[in-house]
Design goal:
The chain has twelve helices and 24 strands.
Length: about 575
């Protein structure tokens, strides 16, 4: 599903391609792309000496592309910034590599002093043009969309000497209360564009729901900068020429004491009851009238009653399974449903972490949901009630289990009394047991299911392939058989992407013909025989880990034998 390429000027090397069986161009198991809205993404991976790109990686020189082959689009584009070699006590060598995305290229250029008074879009374009003039073509951007503006469609600021371009964008555009917005980099056929836009409120088709694809969810309020007691300050007080302190280096700011019963602060009893007394201040440099300053202070303090709730979610991406139209995408809104904690809302993905070796599982950071403080408290109460209800149900179930155990104990005592009273029954029981043991011995060499049960066939195949099969391992194999074919060793899948590509999956474990041919044992090469497929399964050194994954599976280990071992 993912291909990773390293580009060094005119040379391109593939260092990861999970579509090819037994491919050496595979990165370590914890190779992750992590991205957040408005920030440079990162790609971290581990690479081993047998990888063709092991010695092709150069810090600040090599460019990295991560391509989603299923969607034919880039998951990540950027450059290598750090390479850390390692050696273990067992003699294993590897490198840990960290990459940064294209947005970080804006740290390769600087700005110089300038007085700015122009349209925000024009200033943004000017900064991108200046950046392009300072870097090579690979790190340049085409000017894209700039839809962010303010009431006056004007930005007035002073640019400081030596700031990085990205820092200047954040200082005088992105963090301004009347502007804001987000930077987005997009790759088109004619080049790389950079946009400055607001959240476009795009909703995704894929749903994230408990008992469907939601694995875990954690929530917490975003309380950064919380104050419950506020000291507001306005512009600096103007001094007259006759004022004896006119030559002081600094002058005090306007405060609200004259319109607030002599107090320089305001407080909120509801916030104090929740969080205690937390003092803080805020300056409004353009406010010169105390009454206006008091109004702004009240509005600001009241804003802390509307909490931003952040969530961290672990979920299964249904797109690779063809069960959803689109995959998890940064910046989109998803319908998240978990009645246990009272979540049923459209929430925005503001951060995502994707392991390219485990593409089904994604960790999502979800934010931008605002709730009143009273609603958040009520939600916690409802969640507590829901958990209490679940606990009561659990206790009732435990009581029922205890009652059943007592009944079973009574039945067991009655059975023992009856058994002891009838020695003939004991003799017959022994004869039956001997017969069952004899049947089990006979089934050791069975290659066809017994009354639909594949258990003896699995055990026989494992024994022939010198595999120590535990009871848990047996359960995993039987579960995979049930999931893939329902026990039908001749079934052919004619509907999925493999079939559409001309390679339908076949039989008990749903192998593709080319994959089965590679792993099959000589003399046991009939793909429509379940016993032959089981021998091929146990021929994979990673068989247990491979079939234990959720969703579809495929062999990733080393081939053990060409023929049955002696």
């Amino acid at each position: 599903m993912y291909v990773v390429e390293v580009r060094n000027k005119t040379e391109t090397v593939v260092i990861h391609d999970d579509r090819i069986p037994d491919n050496k161009a595979i990165l370590g198991s914890e190779s992750k792309v992590s991205a957040s809205v408005g920030a440079a993404a990162s790609f971290t991976f581990t690479i081993y000496p047998n990888n063709p790109g092991y010695n092709k990686l150069l810090e600040w020189v090599s460019y990295i592309d991560v391509i989603n082959t299923q969607k034919n689009k880039y998951l990540f584009r950027g450059r290598v910034i750090t390479i850390q070699p390692h050696a273990t006590s067992e003699g294993t060598f590897y490198k840990e590599v960290t990459c940064e995305s294209q947005l970080a290229y804006l740290n390769d250029s600087i700005v110089t002093w300038q007085k700015v008074q122009m349209r925000p879009a024009d200033f943004f374009k000017q900064l991108i043009t200046s950046h392009n003039a300072q870097v090579d073509q690979e790190r340049q951007f085409k000017f894209g969309r700039a839809t962010v503006t303010n009431n006056t469609d004007n930005v007035y600021c002073y640019v400081e000497d030596g700031l990085k371009t990205l820092n200047e964008l954040q200082t005088d555009l992105l963090t301004k209360e009347d502007l804001g917005g987000e930077l987005w980099v997009r790759d088109e056929e004619d080049g790389t564009y950079i946009d400055w836009i607001r959240d476009e409120k795009k909703k995704a088709d894929q749903e994230i729901k408990l008992a469907k694809n939601l694995i875990s969810i954690q929530s917490k309020p975003e309380l950064t900068g919380l104050v419950t007691v506020l000291y507001p300050f306005g512009a600096s007080e103007e001094k007259s020429v006759s004022d004896e302190n006119v030559h002081d280096v600094s002058t005090p700011r306007i405060n609200i004491s004259s319109v607030n019963n002599g107090k320089k602060y305001i407080e909120d009893s509801e916030l104090i009851a929740m969080y205690g007394r937390i003092s803080g201040s805020k300056n409004w440099d353009d406010v010169k009238i105390p009454s206006n300053l008091l109004n702004k202070a009240r509005e600001y303090l009241n804003s802390f009653k509307a909490l931003k709730i952040a969530y961290e979610i672990e979920a299964v991406d249904l797109a690779p399974l063809n069960l959803a139209v689109d995959d998890f995408q940064l910046g989109k809104y998803y319908h998240v449903i978990n009645p246990v904690i009272g979540v049923d809302d459209w929430l925005r993905v503001v951060g995502v972490s994707i392991n390219i070796n485990k593409p089904l599982l994604s960790t999502l950071q979800i934010g931008d949901q605002t709730k009143r403080l009273v609603d958040y408290q009520l939600n916690n109460i409802n969640m507590t009630r829901a958990i209490s209800s679940l606990r009561r149900s659990q206790q009732e179930n435990l009581m029922q289990i205890s009652q059943l155990q007592q009944e079973n104990q009574t039945l067991a005592r009655n059975y023992r009394n009856l058994y002891q009273a009838n020695e003939q029954l004991a003799t017959e029981f022994k004869e039956i047991k001997d017969l069952v043991d004899k049947m089990n011995d006979t089934n050791k060499d069975v290659t066809e299911p017994v009354n639909g049960d594949w258990t003896p066939v699995v055990k026989h195949a494992a024994n022939l392939m010198k595999v120590e099969l535990t009871s848990d391992g047996l359960k995993v194999v039987l579960a995979r058989i049930k999931q893939e074919s329902g026990g039908d060793q001749t079934i052919v899948n004619n509907w999925d992407s493999n079939a559409q590509a001309g390679h339908p999956t076949i039989g008990l474990l749903q192998y593709r013909q080319d994959t089965f041919d590679y792993w099959a044992i000589n003399g046991y090469q009939d793909i429509r025989k379940g016993f032959h497929q089981l021998l091929a399964l146990f021929n994979d050194t990673n068989w247990l880990r491979d079939i234990s994954v959720s969703g579809g599976w495929g062999p990733t280990g080393q081939k053990r034998y060409d023929s049955l071992p002696n």
